[in-house]
Amino acid sequence: MLNLTPFEETTSFKKAMQKILQEDRQKDRIELLIKQVRRKYRSARSTLMKLDANLRQLSLKDLEDLFVEIVDMVSLREINAWVNARAKVNTQNHVPTNPSQLANL
What we know:
71% helix; 0% strand
């Protein structure tokens, strides 16, 4: 007789759920950071959209670090510099996995 494992108990399902939860946490952090910046600096919508795009390049750890650091930052320029520096590090540490990325190396 064939024994089937319930899908919820498979490694694939668990990994997929972890990824979904991490993406949700990342999205929540970005939304909160954008709200903080909008309130603190009264930034234009276009500026916030650009910042949002840049924040999406950061890891969850970086977003959590920024959430703490942003309190002491005095300008939007300082935030952008911090984000750009982290995004650059993340890009350098990124290991390409799809063939089109590998072709560009």
